[in-house]
Amino acid sequence: MNAAHRNAALAAQAKRDFDPDYFDPDKASAVPTKNFFVSMLTRDITLIDAVIDFVDNSIDGTMRLAEGSGVDYSKHSVSIDMDGEKFTITDNGGGIPRWGAQKFSLKMGRELDDERDQDIDTIGMHGIGMKRAMFKMGREATIRTLHAGDAYEVPITSEWLDGKSWELPIIDLAAGSFTEAGTTIQVGKLYEFAASRFANVGFLARLREALSEYFTVFLGRGLTILVNGRRIDAAEVGVLVSKGSNGPAPFVFKKEMDGVVVSMAIGLNWNYGLQFDEDEVIDFESPRSAPSAGWTIICNGRAVIFGDKSPLTGWGNGIPLYSYRFSTITGIVEFQSKRAEKLPLATTKRALDITSDIWIQTFNRMLTGIKIWIGYANDMRNFPGSDLRDKWNGAESMPLRLAVDSVATRRGAVLPDGSIEYNPLQEGVVPSPPEKTPCSERIVFSRPVNEVRDISNALFDSAEERPGIVGEACFEIMLEKIQKGEDCEKEHKS
Predict the structure, then answer these.
(1) How many domains does the chain have?
(2) pLDDT band at residue 379, thresholds of 50, 70 and 90?
(3) Measured between alpha carbons, how far is 312 from 316 in angstroms, rounded to an integer?
(4) Residues 258 and 177 in one domain
(5) Which of 321, 331, 348, 382 could disulfide-link to 266, CB 3.0 to 4.6 Å?
């Protein structure tokens, strides 16, 4: 081939590679359109899901920075700011290496030979989270990052979104424009629905709650998340574990199954704790039902389901439907794996794949554990708190991993294959009803305050006695009359 033919071939190859309007008459095009990606990727997620995707991306960055070893989350932060004009998220997770932006980070999907993140506990599987989040919110975005002294930005414009080329420019920046290594993503030209919600107080409250629940594990390890300058606190979720080997303890299970470590604890809710009122009846129907009651499902540190009380986690499936009677029962399950595709996760990251084998196997253990504490709640529902105080004396609320480790020290908890299973009912450590009050009934009624105070003053020479004490005294007076054989019915009619 002479030089002229070679140059012509190279020019034709360049046209095929870089001209979006070029097509080979001998081939059919199967190139996807941006409009398809934008509309389909964002269809099944909410704005809150999009924000969670961004924060997830930041946490993955901190894990990559640590190269799979332990991360000190107290040194890392994620700051989110939003209003009706723009959305901005900034982290100090080490930034995006330039080669990552060139080859992986901005692609619409993950290549089959992409072996990144094999040493970190992420939940990203498809390589769409950050892009999906941006396109859910608006039509323009800028990614600014500093990694290992290399600073650059990648702008995504409306013109690019409407065009056919998939390539994005990388523009060098001065490293001095950053205070520390990390990434800032700003989304502009917000869609109308996003702009209105970002300026809505109710939406911000729901977002803070979702971040508090979903990232409770990382927040508990020290990660800082700010939304419009306000710090997010971890949503507490734990179970009570007594000290020693003979006190009450949760049902505990831990085992590796097909590359996934499954950990579980189901017991009493931390929120109820040991603050029993002397006159309070533990009827498990208190309106103080904790948000964490029910089941919390964690996948690689993300609480994808928090305090679920629906048939999804077994309520009504061979056990009663959830009611306030069970508001002290809390179950926690964690799935941990280096292979995110093995986790029982849906693509939205806030839903479960209940058809996965790992979920089906775990679900049966969940039912075994929860039946123990449903029985306990039924047995204890009519007994005063003062009768139960000693049963839980010294118990401490513990997060899942600490609860499992604590119970694993008990005799017989660790099985020969190294797995852990502890059934408190079989071990005889589930508290039984107090023998001195084998049967009781709760009486609840309301009367005007002035009448209660009048009776209190008549019985106790004080109008400030507690209503429960006043009511009990009235009951005792009437009971004494009945037991003496007095004609209470006649007296009442007169």
Answers:
(1) 3
(2) confident
(3) 9
(4) no
(5) 331
By residue count, the chain amounts to 494
Strand spans (E) along 102-249: 138-147, 150-156, 171-172, 182-190, 224-227, 230-231, 239-241
Q: Is residue 17 part of a domain?
A: no
How far are the Cα atoms of 41, 137, 191 from residue 196, in angstroms, in the given order?
Answer: 22, 11, 9
Give the whole-angstrom CA distance, residue 308 versus residue 324: 13
Do 453 and 396 fall within a single domain? no
Question: pTM, whole model, 2 decimals?
Answer: 0.77
Residue 154 has a pLDDT of 95
Q: Are both 247 and 224 inside the same structural domain?
A: no
* Residue 484, domain member (yes or no): yes
Lowest mean pLDDT among 30-44, 190-204, 378-392: 378-392
**Sheet bearing 171-172, strands edge to edge:** 171-172, 150-156, 138-147, 182-190, 87-91, 77-82, 224-227, 230-231
Q: Are residues 117 and 205 in the same domain?
A: yes
Report CA torsion sign: 175, 179, 184, 186: negative
The pLDDT value recorded for residue 287 is: 38
Q: What pLDDT, on the 0 to 100 scale, is given for residue 116? A: 56
User: Which H helix or E strand runs over 81?
Assistant: strand 77-82
Q: Residue 467 in contact with residue 444, Cβ under 8 Å? A: no
DSSP 185-199: EEEEEE-HHHHHHHT
Looking up tokens 């629905």, which residue turns up? 193
Asked whether 321 and 106 are in contact (CB, 8 A), the reply is: no
- Neighbour-count burial of 434, counting CB atoms closer than 10 A to its CB (0-12 exposed, 13-18 middle, 19+ buried): middle
Token readout for 384 is 């005063």
Q: What would the pLDDT profile of 59-75 be if each residue is shown by its tens digit?
A: 988 887 776 567 899 99
Sign of the four-CA dihedral 378, 381, 386, 387: negative
Domain with 462, as residue range(s), is 449-493
